[in-house]
TrEMBL record:
It comes from Zea mays. Its main location: nucleus. InterPro entries: 3'-5'_exonuclease_dom, 3-5_Exonuclease_domain, RNaseH-like_sf, RNaseH_sf. This is 3'-5' exonuclease. It is found in: Nucleus. GO terms for molecular function: 3'-5' exonuclease activity; metal ion binding; nucleic acid binding. Keywords: Exonuclease, Hydrolase, Magnesium, Metal-binding, Nuclease, Nucleus. Residues 72-93 have a biased composition (Polar residues). Residues 108-292 form the 3'-5' exonuclease domain. SUPFAM superfamilies: Ribonuclease H-like.
Length: 299
């Protein structure tokens, strides 16, 4: 809420001279000086406390400026009452409150050899069979590869595949080293599980070009969200996460655009990769339960 000086008892008149007191002859008496210093100290303490306990932006329809207290350089007073002015902070105060970040907190199974990739695929297929759900089992699916090939080289192949179908376990397969064993190819092409993700058609096309694997069936989360939320928009994984969970999905560029062909992935890379697959699965499970608010068909 904006603050303004209030005219009232003790407020100075608008003229530059009050009575016989000129600016150059004015001196604060001890009582007025002590009162002003106490006021300034209390205001500074309140401002510091407010910064430490900043409320989120949605609590106010528009950013409210905070203020600095300034003693008038040329004070005019009636008796010993001081005057002061309030001036707003700079636009730095409009920085958006940071949301809580979301991250996968379950177990990450890292597979970098053919044997490990085969075991992971076998485990997932067995879980799908045991679930025996009336519909398809959802499988969070995402890929990573080095975005910029070396000069004169063709585009980089998919280096990492992430799969997740529950909140406690994610698989990160380093297929740059393990390749795609036959049992993993079977899983990816099996119609008993629907692979879900953002722009998943592009990922499926990339797998077909790089490894001759036809990933299917597919569900693009952006398309699903537009139907369920009746909000035609090209969603990113981060923006849809914020919409559904009110949390921030971190996307640090040094990880996202890092070397996914490294001999061994770092802990940060594994966490990033697992979180993307987990969030894809999580958002699908929530979106599919939403009632369709409006559906427009294009003829």
């Amino acid at each position: 809420m904006a603050m303004h000086p209030v005219a009232g008892a003790g407020a100075p008149p608008a003229s530059s001279v009050h009575g016989n007191v000129e600016y150059d002859d004015f001196h604060w008496d001890d009582a007025a000086e002590a009162e002003l210093q106490a006021f300034e100290a209390a205001y500074a303490s309140a401002s510091a406390s407010a910064k430490r306990r900043r409320l989120p932006d949605w609590t106010s329809p528009s950013p409210s400026p905070s203020y600095h207290l300034h003693r008038s350089q040329n004070p005019v007073s009636s008796g010993s009452t001081p005057s002061w002015t309030l001036t707003p902070h700079t636009p730095q105060d409009n920085v958006r409150a940071r949301r809580q970040q979301i991250s996968f907190s379950g177990k990450i199974v890292y597979c970098r050899t053919p044997t490990e990739a085969e075991k992971a695929a076998t485990d997932i297929l067995l879980k799908i069979e045991r679930m025996k759900t009336p519909g398809q089992v959802s499988l969070g699916f995402d890929l990573e590869w080095r975005p910029f090939p070396r000069r004169g080289e063709p585009p980089c192949k998919v280096a990492v595949m992430q799969l997740c179908m529950e909140k406690t376990l994610c698989y990160v397969l380093h297929i740059a080293h393990s390749g795609v064993p036959p049992i993993l190819k079977t899983l990816l092409e099996d119609s008993s599980s629907i692979k879900v993700g953002i722009c998943i058609d592009n990922d499926a096309r990339k797998m077909l070009n790089d490894y001759n694997v036809c990933v299917q069936p597919l569900m693009d989360l952006s398309t699903l969200a537009n139907v369920k939320l009746a909000s035609p928009k090209r969603w990113s994984l981060a923006s849809l996460t914020e919409m559904i969970t009110c949390k921030e999905l971190p996307k640090p560029s040094n990880i996202r655009m890092g070397n996914w062909e490294a001999d061994v992935l770092s802990k940060q890379q594994l966490q990033y990769a697992a979180t993307d697959a987990y969030i894809s699965w999580y958002l699908y499970e929530h979106c599919r339960l939403f009632q369709i608010t409006r559906l427009k068909l294009s003829l």
